[in-house]
Amino acid sequence: MSYDTRLREARKRAGLTQEELGKLVGCAKTTITGYETGKSEPNMAILSKIMEALKVDANFIFQDEMREHYEYHATTEEMESLVKKYRLVDNSWKQVILNILDLATAASKEPKTIIKFPQRVPDRDESVEQDSNAIEFSDGATVKISEQPMAAGSGVYLGPESFTEYRVQDNELIRRTAFAVPVSGDSMEPKFHDGDIALVNFEPAEPGDIVVVTMDGLGYIKKLGNGVLLSLNKKYKPIPMKEDMRVNGKVIGILDPEWF
After folding, report:
1. Distance (Å, rounded) from C-alpha 253 to C-alpha 196?
2. In a domain, 24, yes or no
């Protein structure tokens, strides 16, 4: 809420019209209207009279502006601490620091897909064979979910992959699953949506199957075509396959949230 809105709120709470407030502070009704619509700003002398007439202080009038200032402006102590450390590194590291800050700032402004995972399985001594199409456990079932999404869109950058096991309900589809990956983007709608968790195994894939692939360091969930990767959403164009493309698995379904 801006200061002009606070002025209007305080005036109404005091039970005064714009004309009555104007008479109390020595200005016209139109002047008060300008203050309350943000078209003009009162000088300190008039503002003091307004606050006295409305029985409010500057903390009330400018509370939102001050909150925004503290959220986006560093304190003197923060500035001294950060600048001193920044000046101690050489120019190459300074550029790295600036690049990281730019990336972090941009990422914080982007909408994020929030995926709720089931209960994590405790660490186990035994390992699961990666080349098996089925994972079975005596106490229910677990599924390995990638901590990185695959893109149902224009591609997601893939760094070192990491999988964590989560406990789910046991069923035939889960037993056929080798691993699972979160879906990011809308290119595979209406079948796959942003935030879905796709179930994948290592069965042979043929043209027409939905697959998880990596290419040029990017990960995709796409329909396998003849020489191209296809989207189900018609607004996306086919992506030509390249020599480095690797099919990581065949998508066999979606993890139902009720299995968590």
Report:
1. 10
2. yes
The whole-angstrom separation of Cα 188 and Cα 81 is: 48
* CA end-to-end span of the chain: 42
Q: Which of 43, 71, 99 is the last residue of a domain?
A: 71
What phi and psi values does residue 28 have, to the nearest 5 degrees?
-75, 160
Model confidence at 60, in pLDDT bands (50, 70, 90)? low
- Both tokens of 151, joined, read 């893109």
Q: What are phi and psi of 24, to 5 degrees?
A: -70, -35
Question: So what's the pLDDT on residue 207?
Answer: 92
Q: Domain check: are 223 and 250 in the same one?
A: yes
218: left (phi over 0), alpha (psi -120 to 50) or beta: beta
- Are 252 and 176 in contact by the 8 Å Cβ rule? The answer is yes
For residue 108, pLDDT over 60 is answered with: no
User: Which residue range(s) make up the domain with 149?
Assistant: 141-259
Q: What is the mean pLDDT of the chain?
A: 76
> Which CATH number does the domain housing residue 196 bear?
2.10.109.10
Q: Which of 202, 200, 114, 39 is nearest to 30 (CA)?
A: 39
Specify whether the CB–CB gap between 199 and 255 falls below 8 A: yes
Rounded to two decimals, the pTM is: 0.46
